[in-house]
Write a structure and sequence with these properties.
The protein contains 4 helices and 15 strands. With 313 residues, it is α+β, with helices and mostly antiparallel strands. The strands form 2 sheets. Strands 2-3-4-5-10-9-7-6 form an 8-stranded antiparallel β-sheet, covered by helices on one side. Strands 1, 8, 11, 12, 13, 14 and 15 form a 7-stranded mixed β-sheet that branches. A hairpin with a 5-residue loop joins strand 4 and strand 5. About 6% of the residues have low confidence.
Amino acid sequence: MEFIKNKKIRTIAGLSVCVLIICLTVILLISLIEEKNLHPNITKPGTDISLKNISLSEDLKQNFQEKDFVYKNAVNLSTSLDIVSNCLQYDLKNSTYEELPGDVNIRKYILPQGICYVEEDTGYWNYSVSSNNMLNGVAESEFVSDKEITEKTKDFIAAHNLFGKNTYDISVTEMTTGGWNSEEKVVRKEATVFPDINGVKVYGVYRMVLSYDSDGNIVEISNCYNPSSKLEKVELKSFGKIKTMLDTEDYSASASSSMESVQITSARLAYYADSSPNEDGNFYIYPIYIFEAEGVNMEGKLESFDIFVDAVK
Protein backbone atom coordinates (compact mmCIF):
# COMPACT_ATOMS: atom_id res chain seq x y z
CA MET A 1 0.00 0.00 0.00
CA GLU A 2 2.86 2.35 0.85
CA PHE A 3 4.45 1.65 -2.58
CA ILE A 4 1.17 2.40 -4.38
CA LYS A 5 0.76 5.62 -2.36
CA ASN A 6 4.27 6.83 -3.21
CA LYS A 7 3.70 5.98 -6.85
CA LYS A 8 0.52 8.11 -6.86
CA ILE A 9 2.41 10.97 -5.26
CA ARG A 10 5.17 10.75 -7.88
CA THR A 11 2.56 10.62 -10.66
CA ILE A 12 0.75 13.71 -9.34
CA ALA A 13 4.06 15.55 -8.94
CA GLY A 14 5.01 14.63 -12.50
CA LEU A 15 1.68 15.86 -13.84
CA SER A 16 2.12 19.11 -11.89
CA VAL A 17 5.53 19.67 -13.50
CA CYS A 18 4.07 18.99 -16.95
CA VAL A 19 1.22 21.44 -16.35
CA LEU A 20 3.72 24.04 -15.12
CA ILE A 21 5.88 23.58 -18.24
CA ILE A 22 2.82 23.90 -20.51
CA CYS A 23 1.72 27.09 -18.74
CA LEU A 24 5.19 28.61 -19.01
CA THR A 25 5.31 27.67 -22.71
CA VAL A 26 1.93 29.33 -23.35
CA ILE A 27 3.04 32.47 -21.50
CA LEU A 28 6.25 32.56 -23.53
CA LEU A 29 4.36 32.15 -26.81
CA ILE A 30 1.95 34.92 -25.85
CA SER A 31 4.83 37.23 -24.98
CA LEU A 32 6.52 36.46 -28.31
CA ILE A 33 3.31 37.23 -30.18
CA GLU A 34 2.93 40.49 -28.29
CA GLU A 35 6.55 41.41 -29.02
CA LYS A 36 5.98 40.74 -32.73
CA ASN A 37 2.92 42.97 -32.73
CA LEU A 38 5.03 46.11 -32.56
CA HIS A 39 3.91 49.67 -33.10
CA PRO A 40 5.43 52.58 -35.04
CA ASN A 41 7.62 55.01 -33.16
CA ILE A 42 5.64 58.14 -34.01
CA THR A 43 6.98 61.26 -32.36
CA LYS A 44 4.45 62.84 -30.03
CA PRO A 45 3.88 66.62 -30.09
CA GLY A 46 5.97 68.63 -27.64
CA THR A 47 4.55 70.21 -24.51
CA ASP A 48 4.49 73.55 -26.32
CA ILE A 49 1.89 72.31 -28.84
CA SER A 50 -1.60 71.26 -27.82
CA LEU A 51 -4.69 70.60 -29.92
CA LYS A 52 -7.89 71.57 -28.13
CA ASN A 53 -11.45 70.37 -28.70
CA ILE A 54 -10.70 67.92 -31.52
CA SER A 55 -13.89 67.02 -33.38
CA LEU A 56 -13.99 63.65 -35.20
CA SER A 57 -17.31 63.20 -36.99
CA GLU A 58 -19.13 59.87 -37.02
CA ASP A 59 -19.45 60.36 -40.80
CA LEU A 60 -15.76 59.48 -41.12
CA LYS A 61 -16.30 56.09 -39.47
CA GLN A 62 -16.68 54.50 -42.91
CA ASN A 63 -12.99 55.26 -43.63
CA PHE A 64 -11.83 52.95 -40.83
CA GLN A 65 -10.77 49.35 -41.41
CA GLU A 66 -10.78 46.31 -39.15
CA LYS A 67 -7.51 44.79 -40.44
CA ASP A 68 -4.50 45.62 -42.58
CA PHE A 69 -0.95 44.43 -43.19
CA VAL A 70 2.30 45.24 -41.46
CA TYR A 71 5.15 45.20 -43.98
CA LYS A 72 8.79 44.30 -43.54
CA ASN A 73 11.64 46.06 -45.32
CA ALA A 74 14.07 43.76 -47.10
CA VAL A 75 17.09 45.24 -45.35
CA ASN A 76 20.27 43.34 -46.11
CA LEU A 77 23.63 44.37 -47.48
CA SER A 78 23.30 42.36 -50.68
CA THR A 79 19.97 43.99 -51.61
CA SER A 80 21.33 47.46 -50.82
CA LEU A 81 24.42 46.95 -52.95
CA ASP A 82 22.24 45.73 -55.82
CA ILE A 83 20.14 48.91 -55.66
CA VAL A 84 23.22 51.16 -55.46
CA SER A 85 24.97 49.34 -58.29
CA ASN A 86 21.85 49.63 -60.42
CA CYS A 87 21.44 53.35 -59.77
CA LEU A 88 25.12 54.22 -60.25
CA GLN A 89 25.81 51.65 -62.96
CA TYR A 90 28.84 50.51 -61.02
CA ASP A 91 29.51 47.09 -59.45
CA LEU A 92 29.92 47.77 -55.73
CA LYS A 93 29.75 44.10 -54.76
CA ASN A 94 33.15 43.48 -56.30
CA SER A 95 34.66 46.82 -55.32
CA THR A 96 36.98 47.58 -52.43
CA TYR A 97 35.85 49.88 -49.63
CA GLU A 98 37.01 51.56 -46.45
CA GLU A 99 35.41 51.35 -43.00
CA LEU A 100 34.78 54.70 -41.40
CA PRO A 101 36.84 55.29 -38.25
CA GLY A 102 34.62 54.79 -35.22
CA ASP A 103 31.76 53.25 -37.24
CA VAL A 104 32.52 49.93 -38.87
CA ASN A 105 28.91 49.63 -40.09
CA ILE A 106 29.44 52.32 -42.73
CA ARG A 107 31.29 51.46 -45.91
CA LYS A 108 33.02 54.12 -47.99
CA TYR A 109 33.45 53.43 -51.70
CA ILE A 110 35.69 55.64 -53.84
CA LEU A 111 34.17 55.67 -57.32
CA PRO A 112 35.51 57.25 -60.55
CA GLN A 113 33.02 60.14 -60.32
CA GLY A 114 32.39 60.44 -56.58
CA ILE A 115 32.02 58.82 -53.17
CA CYS A 116 29.35 56.42 -51.92
CA TYR A 117 28.58 55.60 -48.28
CA VAL A 118 26.53 52.48 -47.45
CA GLU A 119 25.17 51.62 -43.98
CA GLU A 120 25.33 47.87 -43.53
CA ASP A 121 22.64 47.60 -40.82
CA THR A 122 20.02 49.91 -42.37
CA GLY A 123 20.60 49.62 -46.11
CA TYR A 124 20.63 53.43 -46.37
CA TRP A 125 23.18 54.93 -48.75
CA ASN A 126 24.41 58.26 -50.05
CA TYR A 127 26.31 59.11 -53.21
CA SER A 128 27.78 62.49 -54.15
CA VAL A 129 29.83 63.48 -57.18
CA SER A 130 33.29 64.94 -56.70
CA SER A 131 32.85 67.78 -59.20
CA ASN A 132 29.93 69.54 -57.50
CA ASN A 133 30.81 73.24 -57.61
CA MET A 134 27.42 74.66 -56.68
CA LEU A 135 28.36 76.21 -53.33
CA ASN A 136 27.85 79.78 -54.60
CA GLY A 137 24.59 79.11 -56.40
CA VAL A 138 22.97 80.83 -59.38
CA ALA A 139 19.93 83.01 -59.94
CA GLU A 140 16.57 81.24 -60.01
CA SER A 141 16.14 82.12 -63.70
CA GLU A 142 19.39 80.31 -64.55
CA PHE A 143 18.40 77.09 -62.79
CA VAL A 144 16.57 74.25 -64.51
CA SER A 145 12.83 74.42 -63.76
CA ASP A 146 10.96 72.27 -61.21
CA LYS A 147 9.00 70.68 -64.07
CA GLU A 148 12.21 69.60 -65.79
CA ILE A 149 13.59 68.26 -62.50
CA THR A 150 10.41 66.20 -62.06
CA GLU A 151 10.66 64.77 -65.58
CA LYS A 152 14.36 63.95 -65.14
CA THR A 153 13.54 62.15 -61.90
CA LYS A 154 10.80 60.12 -63.58
CA ASP A 155 13.22 59.19 -66.37
CA PHE A 156 15.82 58.09 -63.78
CA ILE A 157 13.28 55.90 -61.97
CA ALA A 158 12.12 54.30 -65.23
CA ALA A 159 15.65 53.75 -66.53
CA HIS A 160 16.66 51.87 -63.38
CA ASN A 161 13.30 50.16 -62.83
CA LEU A 162 12.97 51.39 -59.25
CA PHE A 163 9.99 50.72 -56.92
CA GLY A 164 8.56 47.90 -59.04
CA LYS A 165 4.88 48.38 -59.89
CA ASN A 166 4.30 50.84 -57.04
CA THR A 167 3.51 54.42 -57.91
CA TYR A 168 5.18 57.40 -56.23
CA ASP A 169 4.97 61.12 -55.58
CA ILE A 170 7.71 63.66 -56.30
CA SER A 171 8.23 66.89 -54.36
CA VAL A 172 10.78 69.44 -55.64
CA THR A 173 12.39 71.90 -53.22
CA GLU A 174 15.37 74.21 -53.55
CA MET A 175 18.35 75.01 -51.37
CA THR A 176 19.30 78.68 -51.46
CA THR A 177 22.09 80.91 -50.22
CA GLY A 178 22.13 84.60 -49.44
CA GLY A 179 20.67 86.84 -46.79
CA TRP A 180 18.47 89.86 -46.29
CA ASN A 181 21.15 92.18 -47.70
CA SER A 182 22.33 89.99 -50.59
CA GLU A 183 20.78 88.37 -53.63
CA GLU A 184 19.26 84.98 -52.97
CA LYS A 185 20.72 82.27 -55.18
CA VAL A 186 19.76 78.66 -55.75
CA VAL A 187 22.48 76.19 -54.77
CA ARG A 188 20.66 73.01 -55.77
CA LYS A 189 17.22 71.52 -56.23
CA GLU A 190 16.13 68.33 -54.54
CA ALA A 191 13.53 65.91 -55.89
CA THR A 192 12.21 63.81 -53.02
CA VAL A 193 10.55 60.62 -54.22
CA PHE A 194 7.91 59.00 -51.97
CA PRO A 195 7.13 55.44 -53.13
CA ASP A 196 3.80 54.02 -52.04
CA ILE A 197 2.77 50.46 -51.20
CA ASN A 198 -0.10 49.15 -53.30
CA GLY A 199 -1.36 52.67 -53.93
CA VAL A 200 -1.17 53.71 -50.26
CA LYS A 201 1.15 56.54 -49.17
CA VAL A 202 4.07 55.79 -46.87
CA TYR A 203 5.27 58.38 -44.34
CA GLY A 204 8.51 58.44 -42.38
CA VAL A 205 11.93 57.84 -43.95
CA TYR A 206 10.70 55.68 -46.85
CA ARG A 207 12.09 57.83 -49.67
CA MET A 208 14.84 58.61 -52.17
CA VAL A 209 16.24 62.13 -52.69
CA LEU A 210 17.95 63.19 -55.92
CA SER A 211 19.84 66.50 -55.90
CA TYR A 212 20.44 68.42 -59.13
CA ASP A 213 22.76 71.23 -60.21
CA SER A 214 21.68 74.20 -62.31
CA ASP A 215 22.12 72.22 -65.55
CA GLY A 216 19.93 69.36 -64.36
CA ASN A 217 22.74 66.93 -63.58
CA ILE A 218 22.43 64.64 -60.57
CA VAL A 219 25.05 65.62 -57.99
CA GLU A 220 23.84 63.59 -55.01
CA ILE A 221 21.51 60.69 -54.19
CA SER A 222 20.33 59.84 -50.67
CA ASN A 223 18.32 56.66 -50.32
CA CYS A 224 16.26 55.37 -47.35
CA TYR A 225 14.09 53.09 -49.48
CA ASN A 226 14.24 49.29 -49.40
CA PRO A 227 11.85 46.84 -51.08
CA SER A 228 9.09 45.65 -48.74
CA SER A 229 6.93 42.56 -48.38
CA LYS A 230 3.88 41.61 -46.33
CA LEU A 231 4.73 40.42 -42.83
CA GLU A 232 1.32 39.66 -41.31
CA LYS A 233 -2.23 40.91 -41.13
CA VAL A 234 -3.06 42.75 -37.90
CA GLU A 235 -6.17 44.09 -36.23
CA LEU A 236 -6.62 47.86 -36.28
CA LYS A 237 -7.94 50.15 -33.58
CA SER A 238 -11.65 50.90 -33.46
CA PHE A 239 -13.19 54.28 -34.16
CA GLY A 240 -13.84 54.73 -30.43
CA LYS A 241 -10.25 53.91 -29.49
CA ILE A 242 -8.93 56.44 -32.02
CA LYS A 243 -11.21 59.12 -30.55
CA THR A 244 -9.79 58.36 -27.10
CA MET A 245 -6.23 58.69 -28.42
CA LEU A 246 -7.08 62.08 -29.92
CA ASP A 247 -8.54 63.24 -26.60
CA THR A 248 -5.44 62.10 -24.67
CA GLU A 249 -2.98 63.61 -27.21
CA ASP A 250 -1.62 60.20 -28.20
CA TYR A 251 -0.68 61.23 -31.74
CA SER A 252 1.71 63.31 -33.83
CA ALA A 253 0.76 66.48 -35.68
CA SER A 254 2.22 68.85 -38.26
CA ALA A 255 0.65 71.93 -36.63
CA SER A 256 2.94 74.94 -36.30
CA SER A 257 1.55 75.88 -32.86
CA SER A 258 -1.19 75.02 -30.39
CA MET A 259 -4.67 74.96 -31.93
CA GLU A 260 -8.18 75.67 -30.76
CA SER A 261 -11.44 74.27 -32.16
CA VAL A 262 -9.80 71.54 -34.22
CA GLN A 263 -12.06 70.06 -36.87
CA ILE A 264 -11.01 66.86 -38.67
CA THR A 265 -12.15 67.08 -42.28
CA SER A 266 -10.95 63.74 -43.68
CA ALA A 267 -9.50 60.39 -42.59
CA ARG A 268 -7.50 57.81 -44.53
CA LEU A 269 -5.29 54.83 -43.90
CA ALA A 270 -1.59 55.15 -44.70
CA TYR A 271 1.71 53.57 -43.65
CA TYR A 272 4.63 54.73 -41.54
CA ALA A 273 8.26 53.58 -41.82
CA ASP A 274 10.45 53.95 -38.74
CA SER A 275 13.93 55.39 -39.29
CA SER A 276 15.70 52.82 -37.12
CA PRO A 277 15.29 49.07 -36.57
CA ASN A 278 13.22 47.61 -33.74
CA GLU A 279 14.72 45.50 -30.94
CA ASP A 280 14.82 42.50 -33.28
CA GLY A 281 16.89 44.43 -35.80
CA ASN A 282 14.04 44.56 -38.34
CA PHE A 283 12.48 47.47 -40.19
CA TYR A 284 8.69 47.38 -40.26
CA ILE A 285 6.16 49.57 -42.03
CA TYR A 286 2.98 50.02 -40.00
CA PRO A 287 -0.60 51.10 -40.72
CA ILE A 288 -1.45 54.57 -39.42
CA TYR A 289 -4.40 56.92 -39.79
CA ILE A 290 -3.86 60.34 -41.36
CA PHE A 291 -6.39 63.00 -40.40
CA GLU A 292 -6.55 66.26 -42.33
CA ALA A 293 -7.62 68.93 -39.88
CA GLU A 294 -8.25 72.65 -39.47
CA GLY A 295 -7.80 74.69 -36.33
CA VAL A 296 -7.40 78.23 -35.05
CA ASN A 297 -3.73 78.94 -34.32
CA MET A 298 -2.19 81.26 -31.72
CA GLU A 299 -2.60 84.24 -34.07
CA GLY A 300 -6.33 83.60 -34.40
CA LYS A 301 -6.01 82.39 -38.00
CA LEU A 302 -7.42 79.21 -39.51
CA GLU A 303 -4.65 76.73 -40.32
CA SER A 304 -4.67 73.33 -42.03
CA PHE A 305 -2.45 70.50 -40.80
CA ASP A 306 -2.26 66.72 -40.46
CA ILE A 307 -2.64 64.43 -37.45
CA PHE A 308 -0.92 61.01 -37.40
CA VAL A 309 -2.25 58.18 -35.22
CA ASP A 310 -0.95 54.63 -34.76
CA ALA A 311 -3.65 52.36 -36.25
CA VAL A 312 -2.39 48.99 -34.96
CA LYS A 313 -4.53 47.55 -32.16
